[in-house]
Amino acid sequence: MVAATTTLLLLAGTVGARVGSTAENLSDAEFFALLDYDGIADLGGVEAAVRAGDYAAAKRELLSYYRSRPANDAGKFTHNDWPGVLELTPDHIWTLGSGEVYRTTLRFSAQESTVTADVTAAAVAATGGTAGFLLMARTKEPVTASVNSREKASGRPALRLTLTDGSVRTLNPTADTYIKAGTDAGTSYGGKDVLQVRDQGSGPFTAETRKAYLQFDLRGVSGVRSAELSLTGRADAAKDVMVFSNSEAFVESSRTWNNTVQNTYSWQGDPGGFDWLLPAGADKEYWYQLARFFFAGPLARAYQGTGEEKYADALIGTMTDFIADADGYGTEYGAGSYPRSLDTARRLDNWTAAYEILRTSPSLDAEENVQILKTMYRSGLHLRGNVHDSPNWMQTQKISLLHAAVYLPEFTAAAGWRGNAADFLAGQLNDSTYPDGGYREATSGYARGYVSQYVDLVEFMKKHGIAFTATEKLRKLGHFLMDQTLPNGYTANYGDSGSDDQRTVLRRLGELLGDQELIYVGTSGKAGTKPAHVAARYPDTRVAVSRSGWSADDAYLRYNIDRGPHSHPDELSLVTYKHGRELLVDPGTYSYSSDPRSDWLRKTTEAHNTVEVDNLPQNSKAAGEITHFVSNPAFDLISGNTDASAGAWHARSVLALRSGVSVVSDQLRPRDTASHRYEQNWHFLPDANLTQSSTTKATVTRFGSGANVTVVPADPGKLTASVANGYYSPAFYRVSDAKYSSYVKQVAGRTTFDTLLLPSSGAADTGVRITRLPVGTLTPDLVTALDIRFGDGGRGTYYKSWATKAKRAFGTYNFDGKILYVQDNPAGSVQSFILYDGSTVQRAGKVLVNSPVPVNDIAVTYDGSKLRIDGRTLTASTDPAKAIAITAPTATEVLLNGTPVNFTRTGDFIYAAAAS
């Protein structure tokens, strides 16, 4: 129902700057003047009624025309499914997102009894993690259901699991509670022996509304064949209670109404129906999502599949209720544009697709038909003129406008909409991408969605003979998306997003453009051609990616200084993957609400794999750049810096080996002489089971199976290390508790963090140790040298110069370049080494490598008989005056960048390659 005018004015102020439509509410005469009677011959009956001034007849003729009109392409619904929509939406029960999924409704009687619900789908989805459930009243009535909690001596809630091997496991909740609105909104009921469920009155909730939550621990459980939730309780009178699965972990002793994000709202029994405006206490996303009509697709498809008028009637009634209550304010909200242009575009797409199904329904009368068409016209006019600075907004707006133009040629404006949309969408790729092809919105999900919508768009345009002229720009953007993709085909999470499977959109785009590399990644290598590169730098987007290959077990590291809409304060953050698992993760977003978990995930630097300065979030709009990117067949070197922290300038260098081992060096330069707090954080999946050594301060993951990682800091005695409590959100409206490792320094002047990231295919290496090697009198903020001892007896030596390069001694080594890494096998002999920007390496006085000129990058692997040399700027040469001398006394074969080459020998030295 329409809220009071005062409320409307207050809400209008929260929308922000908006561009009002020039189309006010249309009179019948104005509307019928918009139709193309000359171009559409079958509108003759409508035109005759209009000329006679009989608009009631014109409406009847128009409905008759649309009922008999041949099918036309109405585009796609934004959602073809929405759990519970068929049962709940007709009764005005609405859920945001997918965090709460309707499963079934149970009935409690006045006598205590046990009722059961099949929750197999929920348990399977939660296998290995946490299964949560929400209990909510199905009907608004002054009746309370009281369900035994886990604190009850008998009749406790239980989750009965039947596993694929035939065994049965019965679990009791690890947490359960209920929350209550009104004056008790800040009260926790976690210790009560009953869970109360109740709802009554008008609106989505009142002071008497109570919802119950249960949580079961499914870690260590696999192979769930079926699951049954059993609840014991009673009600004041017979009462129906809805069961939702819930993807939000909680602590029962602290959960209250005030700290719970409300995802599900009920107006069941309220004669006013939905409140399209933002109800008091609702999450702000309610305002936007409800107006997008995500539920239109499932309802329309249900009507199309069954012919049952209840579905058509429910959807038509909701559409006309929206028109009367939310879209009828003229220019106050911009007719046809409530509440924002993005929501208008989503709604218009859903209405266009729904109208194609509903136009033949007996439930649609002539007056409703015109109301709906008027609103769609006003929406189209608004989307033609509105301009927004967000790429995904404008793309969505113009795609919706194009769909409407093709579907509704009866409007004289349709041809103009069509040209406007097609031209804008071809040119917009210039505005939405950087020169390097990267996407301007710093978020994985939006990048994927943006590319996906372009795939749909180009297919739609081809189908209707509309030219798309920006295919090469789209190809470039597709390759950016491909490079961000994890080896398993999912997105590396960053920004306001979660992790999704990107393969379908990459395959479809590849097939559309004939791009074999996109097809290869989109089909996990089953078709197409493997990409020729493994590492990629996007200097304008300020992102770099290192990987060892394109198979699911390969190593992956993403280095980020990006910025833009939906970005997080995560400059210089890393995400890593190896052996089929994300090992260092971006914790995600959860929601756009002001919930403390959302604020921590989205608005703090602490929630990212970088260094936070003085407990303050970074400014991701600040200056920053990737300064070095070296991609050698054996390693990648990525360096960059940012001014994003007010207290200190931050530089980060990452040496990423193809094995997945990485060494991270952070340098912090304060802007004054005061003491500053520096916190380096590393985030992991919720089931990582972290432990932290009290001596080495190394953080170790202990997953139940599969890959693990060891995070090893240098200078453990100078760090305050801890395992802290955080959160992890794999998708919107899903969040769980997660641990992360924290390393803190409180110092004045320059400081550094040097960290080894060591992945393992199985159990993590708990024996690894790092000792700092002195480099004359130079401090680590100028030159870093580390002695790394692995648990298997192997050894690594790492050197990095932040200062001007010069020949320096450390440990048993002398080196004159910028970066060196030497790997010894457990027997103590040199197995491989890499260097950047240097010419000479000596070990214990013996030359390992010596070049007549500085080498940009070289990697050498020596196994006794085979010597492999890799370098981007190396050429084959056996001339001792020009070639690089490499100690390999027993080598009988030499490969240069993977190709056999000739060599000459002088004593222990091999000459096969020269720096160009």
UniProtKB/TrEMBL annotation:
Its main location: periplasm. Transmembrane segments: none annotated. Residues 1-17 form the signal peptide. It is found in: Periplasm; Secreted. Keywords: Lyase, Periplasm, Secreted, Signal. It holds the Pfam family CBM96. Coiled coil: none annotated. This is Heparinase II/III-like protein. It comes from Kribbella caucasensis. The lineage of its organism: Bacteria, Bacillati, Actinomycetota, Actinomycetes, Propionibacteriales.
